[in-house]
Amino acid sequence: MKSLYFDKELTLREVPMPTRAPGEALIKVLMAGICGTDREILKGYSAFRGIPGHEFVGRVVECEDPKWMGKRVVGEINIACGHCSWCARGLGRHCPTRTVMGIVNRPGAFAEYVALPEANLYAVPDLVTDQAAVFTEPLAAACEILEQLTISPGTRVAVIGDGRLGLLVAQVLKQAGAEVTLIGRHGSKMNLAKTWGIHVFNDGTQEFAASSFPLTVDATGSPGGLSEALRLVEPRGTVVMKSTFHGAANFDATKLVVDEVTLLGSRCGLFAPALDLLKLRRVTVQPLITKTFPLNQGLEAFEYLNQNSALKVLLDMR
Ligand SMILES: [Zn+2]
Ligand SMILES: [Zn+2]
Q: Cα(174)–Cα(212) distance, rounded to whole angstroms?
């Protein structure tokens, strides 16, 4: 089958079909999304070698439990052992021996087919298009904040970073009742957020006043985002860290202590709430798709993402 394969560099490569382990389904990938994590993998994040890609929608073509046959599905990306104490607590996303599709020791979805445990699958409601379903995984990551924190109505939140993740996080917090300010640098992206009733602030030319928000979220995907999130948070406030990047962050640890700030790491989330938001159209994802490429132009798709104006780029394997 055709795939994008990373081994020191990304290439378009013919590889053997995935082998389906017991309990797994073989899925024909329909569409896949490229995210910041994939671009970090190309820089060395998680020392991954193989087929990247963890945001996808597909159709089951082989399975153990016949109920999945032919179903359009998305898949939770963490493959847990199923029997350790973390798995017993329903926290397979933190299972110490987990693999993560396209990120840690497991082939991903930038290919014609991918295998995944049936336990990881979620059927996609008919109302949700392939294009929208691809956003389930990043939207689940945005929803994770709501699993970790209680947002009281009217809570003022700053989301730093007007990229793909920032725009999803801002929408998720807004529909949860927060009063959201998106802080970014791209006019077109912030105009989009404005149409959703989100306040916007361009920090390209001026600085937002320090210690202005009880809750700030770094969704910049870069090391500088955390120090800005920390600068903007009030004493006793919380900074949510949503960025994964290759390298170390630089921030003022003194402010953390003096202002008694809580730093909250936040990664993958549950798929069910994300699919609900898509089904009920409580978040808008269609305008986030900048361009779609066929799989055999996958290298061009990655190249295209170097443009600052690009939001989500999809690969189409249909
Ligand atoms: Zn991702
Ligand atoms: Zn486990």
A: 18
Residues with CB under 5 Å of ion ligand 2 are: 80-81, 84, 87, 95
pLDDT tens digits, 139-197: 999 999 999 999 999 999 999 999 999 999 999 999 999 999 999 999 999 999 999 99
pLDDT score, position 17:
97
Q: How far is the CA of 133 from the centre of ligand 1 (A)?
A: 13
240: phi then psi, degrees, rounded to nearest 5: -95, 125
From the CA of 164, which ligand is nearest?
Answer: 1
Q: Which ligand is closest to the CA of 38, given by its number?
A: 1
Q: Record the tokens describing residue 72, joined without a space.
A: 């359009």
**What Cα–Cα distance (Å) separates residue 54 from each residue in 109, 211, 314?**
6, 36, 12
18 located within any domain: yes
CATH of the domain at 308: 3.90.180.10
Is residue 145 in a domain?
Answer: yes
Domain shared by 205 and 294, yes or no: no
For β-strands 9-14 and 213-218, DSSP reports them as unpaired
Query: Rounded distance, CA 224 to CA 63, Å?
Result: 45
Residue 271 lies in a domain: no
What's residue 90's pLDDT? 87
Between the CA of 90 and the centroid of ligand 2 the distance, in Å, is 9
Task: Give the ligand with the smallest distance to the CA of 88.
Answer: 2
Structural domain boundaries, residue 157: 139-265
Number of the ligand closest to the Cα of 56 = 1
Give the distance (Å) from ligand 1 centre to CA of residue 130: 16
CA of 92 to the centre of ligand 1 (A): 18
SS3 187: helix
Tell me the CA–centroid distance for residue 30 and ligand 2, in Å: 29
Q: What is the mean pLDDT of residues 226-249?
A: 89
CA–centroid distance, residue 145 to ligand 1 (Å):
16
Reported confidence tier of residue 246, pLDDT bands at 50, 70, 90? low
β-bridge mates for residue 159, sequence order: 182, 217
pLDDT tens for each residue of 59-90: 999 999 999 999 999 999 999 998 999 999 98
Question: Average of pLDDT values for 274-296?
Answer: 97
